[in-house]
Design a protein that fits this description.
alpha/beta, Spore Coat Polysaccharide Biosynthesis Protein SpsA, Chain A, 2 domains, 8 strands, 51% helix, 14% strand, binds uridine-5'-diphosphate, binds magnesium ion
């Protein structure tokens, strides 16, 4: 073994005043137990509660190991982590949610896997404590997403993950605005591994993801890593055209054999609505891509840092 490498832990924080007092001591104890240099980087993602103040006093108490990046608004969990990646100095970089759903005590396991030579350490939540509906939904999403993106991740939702420096550097170069970090890392990983980690219910505060935001996040995942939805649209167009051609042929034959008829107005209406639905759906999917292209070409800053507290 060479000299122990610096470990950076990145924690996005958005209105987590209820969790932070529990997180700090547990995280600190775990990291001190590693017996190697470490730093914690907290990104305050536009919290409107006491979070920043709490982070600041934690920084004051541990000026050498606690750094804070304060965003001037809410840019989302993934952008917060991106900012952390950009500032992290560690050879080993760990991401952790502030809500304690994943115990910080699992960090040594991840560090060990990276020491063993893996470049990305994914995690799979064991006996997940989310509501059954959410578990089922995310199981479905995981398998669909794997199929569509061609990646192999058992658990897209779990953000307690570890990365080696070289992977983070590739991610830092990618500069994507709408992205999904675990998937991005998986794409560049050479020797990834997945380990089971504990998972518990959120005890303090509430989930920061509404149902709608979760759906949006999944669209990011789909469109960011695959053109498959667009190909489905094309296929659907081809199928509908083919069917309508056959239908036309059928009508022509009936016209010749049975003679003129005028019935089935409502059937026609129904078919029409169905096709209109498909068309709108397809325009929507195309729009998802176009919207993301638009966001990327504007090249606005992905996040804005108001202030930073660091250790020099
Ligand atoms: N988070 C953030 N910005 C946001 C939403 C969430 O930085 O806009 C942070 C949040 O503070 C937490 C982590 O991302 O540390 C995960 O959020 P949450 O636990 O609400 O997500 P869930 O576990 O419900 O998927
Ligand atoms: Mg959570």
């Amino acid at each position: 073994m060479t000299e122990a490498r610096l470990v950076s832990v990145i924690v996005p924080v958005y209105n987590e005043e209820d969790s932070l007092p529990h997180l700090f001591p547990r995280l600190l104890t775990t990291l001190e137990g590693l017996n190697r240099p470490f730093e914690m980087i907290f990104i305050n993602d536009g919290s409107r509660d006491e979070s920043l103040r709490m982070l600041y006093s934690f920084h004051r108490a541990n000026p050498k190991t606690v750094r804070i990046i304060d965003f001037n608004g809410n840019f989302g969990q993934h952008m917060a982590i991106m900012a952390g990646f950009d500032k992290a100095r560690g050879e080993i970089i760990i991401t952790l949610d502030a809500d304690l759903q994943n115990p910080p005590e699992e960090i040594p396991k991840i560090v060990q896997k990276i020491d063993e030579g893996h470049d990305v350490v994914g995690t799979v939540r064991q006996n997940r404590q989310d509501p059954p509906f959410r578990k089922m939904a995310s199981k479905m999403v995981n398998s669909i997403t794997n199929r569509i993106t061609g990646l192999k991740l058992s658990d897209y939702g779990c953000m307690l993950r570890g990365y080696r420096r070289d992977i983070i550097e590739i991610i830092n170069k990618s500069c994507e605005t709408t992205t999904f970090i675990p998937a991005l890392a998986q794409k560049f990983a050479v020797n990834p591994v997945e380990i089971p980690v504990g998972h518990s219910e959120r005890e303090h505060g509430t989930s920061k993801y509404s149902f709608f935001r979760l759906i949006r996040l999944n669209f990011d995942l789909m469109t960011g890593f695959s053109l498959f939805p667009l190909q489905v649209v094309t296929m659907m167009g081809i199928a509908v055209s083919l069917l309508s051609f056959l239908f036309g042929l059928f009508l022509l034959l009936r016209r010749i054999i049975v003679g003129p008829e005028a019935e089935g107005v409502f059937t026609l209406l129904n078919i029409n609505f169905f096709l209109m639905g498909i068309t709108m759906f397809c325009v929507g999917i195309t729009g998802e891509y176009i919207g993301r292209i638009y966001v990327e070409v504007r090249k606005r800053p992905r996040y804005v840092i108001r202030r930073e507290w660091k250790n020099d």
